[in-house]
Structures are given as C-alpha cells and as structure tokens.
C-alpha cells in the first residue's frame, strides 16, 4: 500500500515534468526569434508563426486529445503524444527553411495537444478528490506558471551559448526519459461510456482559428477594408459557426455545450483565455524590446527573465497556501490585479531605457501575479466536473490558454506594428511606441480578467476547506 502510494507521487512528478516541457516550448522560442529570423530568412510578418503554429494546433486539437484519451486509454495517448512531441522537437531543430520550421512547429503542437489533456486526466483520476487531488493540482498549476517564465530564460541561454536549434533539441533526451518511465509509473484508464471522438469538430475549430489569426496578422498589409481581409474574417466566422452548429447536433461532441452549465468552470476558462492572451504576447513584446531597442544579446535577454522565473517559483508555494486559506476567487482576483499592474508598468518603457528602471519592477510584479493566476484557474477549471468529464475539462482549460496565447500574439503584434510603413525598417522610437501601445492593450485585457474573477467566479464552488493539504505543496 505504501509502495503504491509512493508510485502515485512519482507519477505526479512525471506528469508535471512533461507539462513543464509543453508549456516551456511556447515561451522558449521568444528569445531565439531574431536568431531564427536571421538564419532561416524569415520575413518580419511571418516570424510570429513560429509561436502561433504551435499554439493554434495545440489549442485546436486539445479537446480531441482529451476525448481520444478517454476513449482509447489515457496512458496510451500520453505515450503516443510523447513520441509525436519528441520527434517534432527533433525536426524543429533540424529545420532548414521558414516553411519547414512552421510545419514542424505545428506537428510539435499536435504532440503537445495529445500529451497535456491525457496527463491532466491521469492526474485527476489517479488522485482522490479533495486533499490529494488539490495537492497534485497545485503542483500542476505551479508548473504552468514556472514553465512559461523559465522558457524565456532557458531560450536565451541555449541560443547564445549553442544556437537556436538547441531550444528544440533539449526536449529530445527528456522526452525519451519520459517514454521509458511511462509504462513503469502510469496505469491505464479510460471512460467506458465514450464510444467515438469528433475529429471533424477539431478540424473546424482549428481551421477557423488559424484563418482568424491569418486575418489579424495580414490585415495591416492587405488593408483592413480590403476584400481579401474581409473575406478571410468571413470564412473564419463561418467555420467557427459551423463548429458550434456541429457540436450542438453531434451525438458525442468534441465540446458538449452543456459543460458550460458550471459557472465557475466557465469563468475559469474565460480567465485562462485572458491570461494566455496577455502573458504570451507580453513575453514576445518584452523580448523584442530588449533585443531590438535596448540591444540585449539572447543570453542577456534570457538572464533578464531570471527575475520573473525566480519570483514565480518563490510565490508558487505561497499562492498554493493562499488558495487553501482564502479560496480560489480572492487569489485569482489578486493574481489578475498584479498582472494588470505589471503590464501598466511596462507601458512606460523608453528608447534609452534600462533594466533596473524600465523592466525589473514589472518583472517582479508579473512573477508574483503568475502563480496566483495559474493555480486557482487550474483548480477552478475542474470545479463540479464528473470523473467521465476529466478529459474534456482538462482539454478545455488548456485550449482556452493556448488559443488565448495565439490570439494575443496576433492582436498585440498587430497593435505594435500598426504605425510601421510596410517595407521599411522601423526606428527604435517607432518600435518603442508600438510596444507601449501593445502593453496598454494587454493591461486592458488583464483588467477584464479582474472583472471576470469578481463577477463570474463563485467562491462556494471551490471552497477553501476542500483543499486542506495544499499547504504541503
């Protein structure tokens, strides 16, 4: 009995390690983007697709991954996802052109979309609701926040000391180790009631989102009122509408609309979308500001993010205990408020700025806010769900964060480049002004997250007494 209990916690370590890799690979490319652009001759407008291709496929196929895990076996899908992700990482490191890297990043995102919901489903079904599960969910949520911050730090170190390919190659030995441990530490489970999965739904929602991001990123070049731009947005709306109509009619839909009857779960997903929108774009804007305006090297840029990563690690345990003592709602309000304050601070970045004056205070604020967002959002996203809904709920919250990230990068990048003249290299002054505008929009988005936390999250759905052992996390 004791041995079985220990194996359970070793399994948690494996699940958190793979989730760390999945989250890391969203942020780790940020610092390497200028080097990738130079080596593979990326155009400025297509550079963001190195991030967006991964995030969109990841987010678009997460729900399908969760449903397939419930049907075919969670450990089996976790294992398959590890193979896809590890192979995709290897191919990304070997990419030889703009198109090949974007394609391999999409393939890597497909692996992540298979791993992440299967892992969270395994966690949910392995640990009993209450004491055990909330310790595990606290660790899972903390890994999400720390992984995002550590990605930008590690990306700078690897790019400068080796080259950008190693931000992908580093996943390969970790992926192989995880593959070896999976049969030893994880047990198989599935939902016997699930009989099919909705592949068409995944294709419709992913296609609609990809075309939406395409319209946002190309609108400035094509002209916002041009027939091409309007046509792209119309096609996106039609695909997403078709997705909702199909889900309403399908006997086993990818995303049963009935799950949104759970108000706190719905609020958690809205908050996750908002957090992804602000956080992913913020890291991209800050990275470009440091390298293109302040002239930081990739290594110096990565080390600069140590303040965020270190602060997030320090506050993660505190956030877990606070969630236990005061509940999800107050902790999430505080976290979103800190994120808003951090982004507001970054609106004051300047052409002749310094790390200590323009960046460090904002980094410390953001590093504090991140775990106070990720941990309560993770716990609230599963509030009131049944065991058979584990795959759906876990896929849904990850989908919200990834889609939010892809949309946020597209929107804030468009805001940042709105004043640029096509074909001309922007000056440091133009770049800085664009970044300031992007941070204002990001702050407004996070302020909306505060309102969602106040008015939509119901504290009684995830009461503090449900998680008395989070203190041990």
Give a description of the structure.
- This protein is mostly helical.
- The chain has two domains: 2-186 and 254-472, Growth Hormone, Chain: A; 199-253.
- Helices cover 77% and strands 0% of the residues.
- The chain has 17 helices and no strands.
- The protein has helices at residues 2-27, 33-40, 49-72, 74-93, 98-126, 131-161, 166-169, 171-185, 199-222, 227-249, 263-293, 298-304, 306-326, 328-346, 355-380, 390-416, 428-455.
- The longest helix is centred in the first third of the chain and has 31 residues, at 131-161.
- The protein starts with a helix and ends in an 18-residue tail after the last helix.
Q: How would you concisely characterize the structure shown here?
A:
The chain is mainly alpha-helical.
What descriptive keywords fit this protein?
473 residues, Growth Hormone, Chain: A, 2 domains, 77% helix, mainly alpha, disordered C terminus
Please write out the topology.
Elements: H1 2-27, H2 33-40, H3 49-72, H4 74-93, H5 98-126, H6 131-161, H7 166-169, H8 171-185, H9 199-222, H10 227-249, H11 263-293, H12 298-304, H13 306-326, H14 328-346, H15 355-380, H16 390-416, H17 428-455
Helix pairs in contact: 1-5, 1-6, 1-8, 3-4, 3-5, 3-9, 3-16, 4-5, 4-8, 5-6, 5-16, 6-12, 6-13, 6-15, 9-10, 9-16, 11-15, 11-16, 11-17, 13-14, 13-15, 14-15, 14-17, 16-17
Name of the top-level CATH class of the largest domain = Mainly Alpha
CATH homologous superfamily caption of the largest domain: MFS general substrate transporter like domains
CATH hierarchy: architecture of the largest domain: Up-down Bundle
Structural class: mainly alpha
What ranges have pLDDT less than 50 throughout 5 or more consecutive residues?
A: 465-473
Number of strands: 0
Q: State the helix count.
A: 17
Question: What portion of residues belong to β-strands?
Answer: under 5%
Q: What is the CATH T-level topology of the largest domain?
A: Growth Hormone, Chain: A
Order of helices and strands: HHHHHHHHHHHHHHHHH
The end-to-end span amounts to 22 Å
Query: How many strands, what sense, and barrel or not for the largest sheet?
Result: none
Tell me the overall shape. Answer: globular
If you compute it from the alpha carbons, what radius of gyration comes out, rounded to the nearest whole angstrom?
21 Å
Counting copies of identical and different chains, the oligomeric state is single chain
Mean pLDDT metric: 82
Helix content: over 70%
**Total domain units:** 2
